[in-house]
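Hi V.,

You were right to ask for the full record rather than a summary. Here it is.
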Amino acid sequence: MDFLMSGLAACGACLFTNPLEVVKTRMQLQGELQAPGTYQRHYRNVFHAFITIGRVDGLAALQKGLAPALLYQFLMNGIRLGTYGLAEAGGYLHTAEGTLSPPRSAAAGALAGVMGAYLGSPIYMVKTHLQAQAASEIAVGHQYKHQGMFQALSEIGQKHGLVGLWRGALGGLPRVIIGSSTQLCTFSSTKDLITQWEILPPQSWKVALAAAMVSGIAVVLAMTPFDVVSTRLYNQPTDSQGKHL
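Predicted structure:
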């Protein structure tokens, strides 16, 4: 049940955050392997990117890649949060005194994240391809011509086999290790501190909300450099043998 509820919760959030993922993907691909000032900046900032994509590609383009994004969130976070929850419930993350152990929490978060991300890597790759696809006047990065998630998975599998489907998976693991360990560790630690300091009522939903906000900031700061690398690896073009060009 933990796995199912974790996956469904992540999917619910994805419906609202997917437009941000589209914008993030395109901004991360912009200027790839080009010196600053030598390329046209189609997206000057987050707000300009939203307006530009909506104006040129249409408002529906802000939800590009939604199907693989939902599936990836269900698989990845169902496994990640479910596994971490089982470890926490089993007492593996606490010391003999009953306090949360940050090293154990970080290690469990990293391991749980790796399992979920590696299994869902083909879905994440296709999501990146679809979100990068744009009209020629605002296109950045390599432009794949996928028609949808299943067509993309089928085409990549037929051309390059299982190796092609998991292309970029190892390069994406540092992103997940850093992000997952930071998120789960800071979330649990912040909840404990809020409860210990009696800042908010112990059973209040505000405790989880405050912990999630602190955790989210920490994740962005720690994970962004690895996220840029991962996005570019997944979106790189390949030759007939499936090797990066």
